[in-house]
Amino acid sequence: MKLRNWMVAFAVSGAASAVAAQDLRSPSPDQYVPRLGDIMSTAQTRHQKLWLAGKAQNWELAAYELNQLKASLVEAAVLYSGIPVSNVTTLEPSLQSIADAVAAKDGRKFGKALGELTDGCNACHRSMKRSFVVMRVPSDQQPFANQQFAPAVKP
Ligand code: HEC
Fold it and tell me: pLDDT tens digits, residue range 111-140?
């Protein structure tokens, strides 16, 4: 059954009598703008999955997660004009190094490049008064293993 037909059937089936089919339509792109924090949370997931895929030498998956992560970063820059574009473009060399490492199936180069990218994440957070959001190269597979939760030691 097509999604739309399913939604109509669901709406008239009484189970959702209060919800008109009309209300269930997905918003058009100009209506839905994800919050920056939501884009970043997605970037966090992809950052960790990218690392996990690279660690497991699943280079096809790593290439996919890298593209997904790039898309999140581009989306952040395009939708939120308050973000200095240079904060995103400075990530370009490390994103490229990761792509090169993935293409070469080079785990060592991959780890180094991911570390550089992570420094770039934190550099932008610092410059945008979000220095308390500290990303790190994940230590393991636990959720949020790529974020530091202990307060930073003040210099
Ligand atoms: C160009 C600037 C910039 C870059 C680059 C950037 N961030 Fe962010 N990030 C932000 C800003 C600004 C916020 C705060 C958003 C808010 O307060 O709503 C944020 C917030 C976050 C959060 C907190 C979200 C939450 O709701 O808990 C995470 C996690 C995060 N970023 C992950 C990353 C990761 C991972 C990278 C690198 C792959 C990255 N960010 C790169 C600007 C950036």
Answer: 999 999 999 999 999 999 999 999 999 988
Cβ < 6 Å from ligand 1: which residues?
36-37, 40-41, 43-44, 47, 69, 73, 83, 87-88, 91, 117, 120-121, 124-125, 128, 130, 133, 135, 147
Q: Which residue in this structure is represented by tokens 């030498």?
A: 57
- CB hemisphere CA count around 54 (13 angstroms): 30
pLDDT (tens digit per residue) in 82-116: 888 888 889 999 999 999 999 999 999 999 999 99
> Boundaries of CATH 1.20.120 in the chain?
36-148
User: Is the pLDDT confidence value at 5 over 60?
Assistant: no
The residue to which tokens 């703008």 are assigned: 33
Q: Which fold has domain 36-148?
A: Four Helix Bundle (Hemerythrin (Met), subunit A) (1.20.120)
